[in-house]
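Students often ask why inverse folding is considered easier than folding. One informal answer: many sequences map to the same fold, so there is more than one right answer. In these notes we will look at a single instance of the problem. The structure comes first.
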């Protein structure tokens, strides 16, 4: 029946899945050839690496289940990988009839290289549907999980999921913040205004006037992304006042803190440049993904603030 389907309809699900799988395996084989691995060997080593990260020392049967490969095939692969010096097979401490598998130091180095290569390849191959983190790719993964008979809540398995880092890490957030901060600094270059001064002008223009300098100082110190303590905030605001961009910023002033006409005019010019670049930055991103990202980052911020009191 499958052969008849392939011959009669070039768009059947089975045919397309077979073609995608074949091309994917071929692409992985080609990408890993320089470090001496095949797709099957990578699947086995990456699964073993993922289990080792969890503190496990699996038997061949357990590794076969984790990698989604037939036990007899795993036995053949492990013998070859042992000869290549990438893993060792030893008597299992809990089952004398089984062999426990462990990566060698060289095997760990090789599989780490392979994981980096394959992740890059996955980004490249899924680029037409928005990349590995895109909405369409997530929907595809959910569809394939369904076809494999796995419920949405079932834990994933296989080498790719076992060796993945968390989808969002502190490093990701820091890199994004650093990139955006660098972009803002580039936009402001030549204006005579630093990123911190631009943010202070924005606070004055959008949230002002402030009832008292103390309230503004407290608010600015609370903006942890600025990394400014109370003396630094005082210096920053005093500098804006000396240049005629703000008024009433000193702690001993009694009146409201406000942005001056000169400050508002400068802020307006800078805002136009920032908004133009910001539109280009977010233009092609899915609004639903952006909304999700905002919710997640808000929750991460709240939890990080809570944990600061516990750590």
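Output (designed amino acids):
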């Amino acid at each position: 029946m499958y052969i008849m389907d392939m011959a009669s309809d070039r768009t059947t699900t089975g045919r397309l899945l077979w073609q995608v799988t074949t091309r994917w395996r071929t692409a992985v084989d080609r990408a890993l050839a320089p470090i001496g691995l095949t797709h099957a060997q990578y699947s086995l080593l990456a699964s073993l690496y993922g289990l080792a990260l969890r503190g496990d020392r699996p038997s061949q049967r357990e590794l076969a289940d984790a990698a989604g490969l037939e036990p007899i095939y795993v036995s053949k692969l492990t013998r070859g990988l042992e000869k290549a010096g990438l893993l060792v097979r030893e008597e299992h401490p809990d089952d004398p009839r089984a062999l426990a598998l462990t990566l060698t130091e060289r095997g760990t180095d090789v599989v780490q290289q392979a994981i980096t290569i394959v992740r890059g390849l996955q980004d490249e191959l899924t680029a037409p549907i928005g990349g590995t983190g895109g909405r369409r790719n997530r929907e595809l993964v959910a569809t394939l999980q369904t076809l494999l008979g796995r419920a949405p809540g079932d834990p994933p398995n296989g080498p790719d999921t076992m060796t993945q880092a968390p989808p969002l890490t502190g490093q990701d957030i820091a890199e994004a913040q650093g990139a955006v901060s660098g972009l803002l600094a580039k936009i402001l270059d030549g204006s005579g205004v630093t990123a911190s001064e631009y943010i202070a002008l924005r606070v004055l223009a959008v949230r002002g006037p402030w009832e008292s300098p103390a309230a503004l100082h407290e608010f600015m110190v609370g903006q942890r992304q600025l990394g400014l303590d109370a003396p630094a905030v005082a210096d920053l605001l005093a500098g804006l006042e000396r240049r005629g961009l703000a008024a009433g910023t000193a702690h001993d002033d009694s009146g409201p803190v406000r942005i001056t006409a000169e400050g508002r005019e400068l802020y307006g010019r800078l805002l136009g440049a920032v908004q133009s670049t910001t539109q280009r930055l977010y233009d092609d991103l899915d609004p639903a993904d952006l909304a999700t990202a905002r919710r997640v980052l808000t929750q991460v911020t709240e939890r990080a603030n809570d944990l600061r009191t516990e750590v």
